[in-house]
Amino acid sequence: MGDKPQKATAFVDWYLATVEAAGLTDKRYPVKGMNVWTPYGFRARRELDRVMVREIESAGSVPVEFPTLIPQTEFQKEGEHIKGFDAQVYWVTKGGESPLDVPLVLRPTSETAMYPVFSLWIRSHKDLPLNVYQIVNTFRYETKTTRPFLRVREIHFFEEHTCQVDEAAATERVRSNLEAFAAMAKAFALPFVPVRRPEWDKFPGAFYSVALDIPLGGGRTLQIGSVHHYRENFSRPYQIAYEDREGEQRYVHQTTFGLSERLLGAIVAVHGDDKGAVFPTSVAPHQVVIVPILAGGNAEMVGTFAAGLERRLSARGVRVHLDDSEERPGAKYYRWETAGVPLRLEVGGREAAAGSVTVVDRLGGKRTLGPAGLEEAIDGALRTYDQQLYERALTAFRSAFSIARRLEELGASETVRLLSWCGKESCGRAIETAIDGSLLGTPEGELPIAVGAPGPCLVCGESNDALWALAGRPM
Amino acid sequence: MGDKPQKATAFVDWYLATVEAAGLTDKRYPVKGMNVWTPYGFRARRELDRVMVREIESAGSVPVEFPTLIPQTEFQKEGEHIKGFDAQVYWVTKGGESPLDVPLVLRPTSETAMYPVFSLWIRSHKDLPLNVYQIVNTFRYETKTTRPFLRVREIHFFEEHTCQVDEAAATERVRSNLEAFAAMAKAFALPFVPVRRPEWDKFPGAFYSVALDIPLGGGRTLQIGSVHHYRENFSRPYQIAYEDREGEQRYVHQTTFGLSERLLGAIVAVHGDDKGAVFPTSVAPHQVVIVPILAGGNAEMVGTFAAGLERRLSARGVRVHLDDSEERPGAKYYRWETAGVPLRLEVGGREAAAGSVTVVDRLGGKRTLGPAGLEEAIDGALRTYDQQLYERALTAFRSAFSIARRLEELGASETVRLLSWCGKESCGRAIETAIDGSLLGTPEGELPIAVGAPGPCLVCGESNDALWALAGRPM
User: Fold this and answer.
1) Mean pLDDT value across chain B
2) Which residue in the set B28, B68, B74 is minimally distant from A154, CB to CB?
3) Interface test with chain A among B35, B68, B153, B157, by most A beta carbons within 10 Å
4) pTM for this predicted structure
5) Which fold would CATH assign to domain B11-271?
6) Domain coordinates of chain A in residue numbers?
7) ipTM reported for the complex surpasses 0.90
């Protein structure tokens, strides 16, 4: 254990070691940056997807799936967009032995796959809004160092695409997406801040982009998703138009909402500790692990009680795993701590005789629950665990930000800085140089920490249009 | 309606028109054979997947996901296999602007993606059996005419891959897969026959292949899945070996089990009629549609009752859709019949006043259910509907086979023929010529219709090794 990297002192190494030890992915696949979803990792991802699906369908979106391959001709219709992705796409050029007439792109994102079809689906204002989403894999020919879940070449991706009657309706959809994401983030116990990116850092082709950022400590930030307002930037080249109530032809206003497996990386990065991963119950492949402690003559009684307990919890919808392998209990404790299981139930001879269990939660709490109302008490322990996990994450979140009042304060900051910015690119670039990172943009809605009104711009001293902005070092 | 192709007289055109009218797919995507999963089609597929996941996980399989892209070097390790797929794969040759060092294949199936990693996962007999499955898209550069769900270039695919200690254990896994498939097929109301394919038609690289065939009428058959026993054919080139209890190194014996979106096509093809699709409740995106019939002064009462009914059924877990759009009831009846919804609940003023509903099922039954125990009665109507659908399919299945006792009887048969075959390829080829189709192989287990012992081979007259075999015209 002495060689294991510590979260506080070697964050990136700690992250890589934690993902590996939890058994969430296998990086030994023979294409760099394309990893194998192991059974444990896949199940975590499946639970993550369930939360996303639940929230986006509550917000009126319906599932679709568009093809993986996009013809070059469609891909190149929106100029800004293609410029943003050109260097990063995989090209399919051959089918069997023959070169393809039109090369195909492996989708890096699906605007250019969906929008030619949207132009067929939408005719009238009665066809609007169109709110569809898909969960698919996307592909980017990454040239930077890849890292499991955070930067990979085949990406498990969630993308909502919507068409709205006008700019205001699209703005409202952006708001609705932020609300849906807040519900997801609560389920993942991930406090976040929505940040409107500066012009030079918006999504290629977008009118504006709101990124969903989380702090990772040490002044680092991670973008875990984004919501974009496209105005008519895509609907014009792709001819997505409708007849309004007055019989006029109008272009739709579009939005997109993107999330990915990066969320799983964020959950490991935010909640994990030096013992391993720590999962919120929403995502944990096993919410509860039962470890029977067999000794001497009680093996049969303990085994029977443990198996019965597994059945009872499973019948209530708890994702429970009975670890009846041949290892020592201590080895099992270690394994399931590393894997981030929320609750461990220890069942020995004393517990089996009394019908009770010893509950150890992944945040370190330990107590004995008696036989009366045992299932309800375990449900309660899961809820309490989630609350404590969220509160711990919220405390870390709040302490990850601090105010900078002068440009000289930025330096190699250990926190994400909140500062006044006039909105000019030149001042933004000066801030980026000073912090050796990025101007993330202006937070939407509530600020991550309580502050007063913004002062003058940190760079030029202009007071009139200055807004609070965030600057940090994105991973 | 006069122009609509009829199932009995123009099967293929009928199939295409039925899929289209039900709104299950959109074929206008600009790559031929790569279609869009519409919201309705996607939801049918999602339910189909749920059944597959339920049954395969009950049989001890766990989910994984391997990358979409396979390096040419791995893809070419097993010679037979690559020969079977060489002409049908899409090649990724470029990333960004640069040619890739090693070209990548879009998986046509995942043996060559998984097995290099299995060789790392498996060390000891304690790691066996390894039973994993994935649901992913696969890609085939089809040169034949494409048809939605039945023959496409991007295929929604289910594949189980297992590693077993020896040949007998692998044979047992084949049996377990056939049992799991029988449960799935029951849920889809699809009678089928497992057929061991002749040597010349087995999966590339397999020791033997059992195909899951269904008759489609007119002597046509459709393979809706397959189970393969690989023996050591892949474990040797991919070096998947383990140490047995005696400390000896042994190669694993492998099996695979493949299903695809073709199942959805089969459901449409088997159950559909001249009015449109007909879904079993297991797969129906909407199991129940409520159509309020508003007239004069009762609109509010009817609307309230219909909305309440939707809530009550939804709370019981029924997939129910309240169609409160502005169309006439007749147009709604037509639409949901075309779309294959099992039950339609008509709610007018009389029903709302009495708390009753008029139930029309997709097989033509109609009755009124009173207010007492209404939800239970609707559950019962769904169960009865499924039984009737299955019985209807079973009747059609049984009448789709007939015995041929002489080669001259084969001709352009309107049924799939059951005949005696000695097992020799030359005799098999003669049968294929005579029927202008395929010798499908020898059924595993029970025969689709009751027959006695096989007679002498239809071609050579040999009696010793003759077995019942099936011959038909695969779609």
Assistant:
1) 95
2) B68
3) B68
4) 0.96
5) BirA Bifunctional Protein; domain 2 (3.30.930)
6) 11-271, 288-384, 401-474
7) yes
